[in-house]
Amino acid sequence: MKKGAVSLLVLLFAILVGLFAGYGWWKGNVASVSDDETSAYFVVPKGASAMQIGNKLHDQGLVKSTLAYKLYVQFFGKAKKINAGEFKLAKNMSVSEIVEALQGGPLELWVTIPEGLRKEEMTDIFIESLQMNPETASTFESEFLSISKGKEGYLFPDTYLFPPDAAASVIVGRLEIVFDTRIGEFEEGIKDSAYSLNEIITMASILERETVTDEERSIVAGILWKRLETDGWLLQADATVQYAIANANCELRITNCEWWPILTKANLEIDSAYNSYKYKPLPPTPIANPGTASIKAAIYPESSSYWFYIHDVDGAIHYAETIQQHNANVRKYLGK
Questions:
Q1: How much is the mean pLDDT over the chain?
Q2: Average pLDDT for residues 67-83, to the nearest whole number?
Q3: Rounded Cα–Cα distance for residues 211 and 220 (Å)
Q4: Measuring CA to CA, which residue among 97, 45, 118, 113 is closest to residue 288?
Q5: Dihedral sign, Cα of residue 169, residue 248, residue 205, residue 288
Q6: Which of 85, 137, 82 is nearest to 107 (CA)?
Q7: Is the pLDDT confidence value at 1 over 70?
Q8: Distances (CA, A) of 92 to 44, 86, 231
Q9: What are the beta bridge partners of residue 160?
Q10: Residue 335's pLDDT is what?
Q11: 115 DSSP 8-state letter
């Protein structure tokens, strides 16, 4: 036999050995970890990659190999079909069974509530995130708004896991518990403050709507507290008027209702306790549900020589010490 033919046979043999070895590795690593049928709760984070999910499955002892899991979901085109949420798995499940379970309906779903939303906006997010049908959504909305009445500002915005059939009372209770936990971090600051908890949360809710970055919140808090404490000054925060206008226009939950409308000069004349262009005190209640950064800024405002601020079309803030400087900023950055 010629030398070249021998080399070819050796190469083919090596390939076959490699294929058999690879198949053996693959078969062994996509099989179940053990015969243990004990249920284990597994959470898929929102936006997690196939590798991240595989790592987590491996760390919890649910798969033998992160690589085998990734290769499986990539080869069969299932990587983007994994749902986020909480699932019930077991160590006696193979990789294919685990993937099938992760593509099904989770026991709990992720719900992300951004800072600065009204309770009505929160309701819409829960309805969408928990995938409620129209009949369930209508009942949930009514119950949520009824149970949360008078609790604006005290429903903490965060990312939560809830079962799809979670009752409105359970959800509102959870938001309140998280608020109590987070506000507890500022117990000493609140105690030392000249303001009540409701005043602090009301200011924090205004800051959440009036500011863009964490860096500017404490400065704007200083400006707004200073206005309230100075004779002859009104708070004049647009967000409070937006809240008042929405209360008047959206009471009946009009389709596509605008909860934070662009204001006109006529809007500034609305007769409402929430109109900080007409009435001196803080609004009677918070206008939205603030996050930790705004609460902290309301408790620990930064003193400055500024009395005015505006945001330009790109969201950058510009401060002013006098009305003349402020008007110049308005003309320069807003073209008014």
A1: 91
A2: 89
A3: 8
A4: 118
A5: positive
A6: 85
A7: no
A8: 19, 18, 72
A9: 111
A10: 86
A11: T
- φ and ψ at 111, to 5 degrees? -130, 120
Closest-CA residue to 132 (of 173, 157, 163, 93): 163
What is the reported pLDDT for 80? 87
pLDDT at 162 exceeding the cut of 70: yes
For residue 318, what is the enclosing H or E element?
A: strand 317-320
Rounded Cα distance between 169 and 261, Å, is 30
Is 262 exposed, middle or buried (CB count within 10 Å of its CB: 0-12, 13-18, 19+)? exposed
Measured distance CA(48)–CA(176) in Å, rounded: 28
Question: Domain residue spans in the chain?
Answer: 31-107, 109-181, 200-334
Question: CB of 148 within 8 A of CB of 258?
Answer: no
pLDDT at 310 over 70: yes
Q: To which CATH superfamily is domain 31-107 assigned?
A: Endolytic murein transglycosylase (3.30.1490.480)
195 three-class SS = coil
What pTM was estimated for this model as a whole?
A: 0.84
Q: Tokens in use for 12? A: 């083919």
